């Protein structure tokens, strides 16, 4: 796990974005193994930080992957901004989060939904043949997540009612195992 100590890019974490005293909720942002600097820039910009603060978030954890944008970590009595590139597992970060903001990678989406966490997916509009958009659209149609773009992230966070999201059904690995047993003639 590498914790970034790089200087903030273009303004870093604005001081006016500190949450109200007593804010205890935690938001986790993940870009997976990719570079998605636009998401990191959007979520660490003043408009998003103000919205998160207004919603009671006092902790923001950014997993920046291969990105070049690394906001400076902040520790204050009423606000924490943590930044890291990679970890062996994001399971603990997901468990601690009250909200997950993620790129639209299948692994990140399914792991987050499997943990039962509210998920806002941010579409990377710079990708050619954006298959991630297809996944986000289907999961939104099914009521499991909300998706937006970097330019609409603050507005989406402000307006969405996360309590309306439907739980993602748990996997049923025993069915897959039975299918494999049948196909392979093991049982």
Summarize the structure.
It contains seven helices and seven strands, in the order βααβββαβαβαβαα. With 187 residues, the chain is α/β, with parallel strands linked by helices.
Describe this structure in words.
Its EC number is 2.4.1.141. GO terms for molecular function: N-acetylglucosaminyldiphosphodolichol N-acetylglucosaminyltransferase activity. It is an enzyme of class 2 (transferase). The protein contains 7 helices and 7 strands. The longest helix has 12 residues, at 173-184. The protein has a 7-stranded mixed β-sheet, with helices on both faces. Helix 5 links the parallel strand 6 (119-123) and strand 7 (146-149). The protein is 33% helix and 19% strand.
Helix share bin: 25-40%
| CATH class category | Alpha Beta
Radius of gyration: 18 Å
Q: How many structural units, i.e. domains?
A: 1
- The sequence of SSEs as H and E is EHHEEEHEHEHEHH
β content, as a range? 15-25%
CATH architecture: 3-Layer(aba) Sandwich
Number of strands: 7
- CATH topology grouping: Rossmann fold
Poorly predicted ranges: 1-19
Pfam family, one: Glyco_tran_28_C
Main location: endoplasmic reticulum
Keywords: Endoplasmic reticulum, Glycosyltransferase, Transferase
Subcellular location: Endoplasmic reticulum
What order do the helices and strands come in, and which of them pair?
Layout: E1 25-30, H1 37-43, H2 46-54, E2 57-63, E3 74-76, E4 79-84, H3 91-96, E5 99-102, H4 106-114, E6 119-123, H5 131-141, E7 146-149, H6 153-159, H7 173-184
């Amino acid at each position: 796990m590498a914790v970034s100590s790089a200087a903030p890019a273009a303004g870093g974490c604005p001081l006016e974005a500190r949450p109200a005293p007593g804010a205890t909720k935690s938001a986790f942002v993940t870009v997976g193994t990719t570079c998605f600097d636009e998401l990191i820039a959007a979520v660490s910009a003043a408009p998003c930080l103000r919205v998160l603060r207004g919603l009671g978030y006092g902790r923001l954890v950014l997993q920046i992957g291969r990105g070049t944008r690394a906001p400076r970590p902040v520790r204050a009595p009423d606000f924490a901004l943590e930044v890291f590139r990679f970890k062996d597992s994001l399971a603990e970060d997901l468990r601690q989060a009250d909200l997950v903001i993620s790129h639209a990678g299948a692994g990140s989406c399914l792991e987050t939904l499997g943990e039962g966490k509210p998920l806002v997916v941010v579409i990377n509009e710079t990708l050619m043949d954006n298959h991630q958009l297809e996944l986000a659209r289907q999961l939104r149609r099914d009521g499991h997540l909300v998706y937006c773009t970097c330019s609409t992230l603050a507005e989406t966070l402000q307006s969405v009612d996360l309590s309306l999201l439907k739980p993602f059904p748990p996997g049923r690995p025993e069915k897959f195992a039975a299918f494999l047993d049948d196909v392979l003639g093991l049982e």
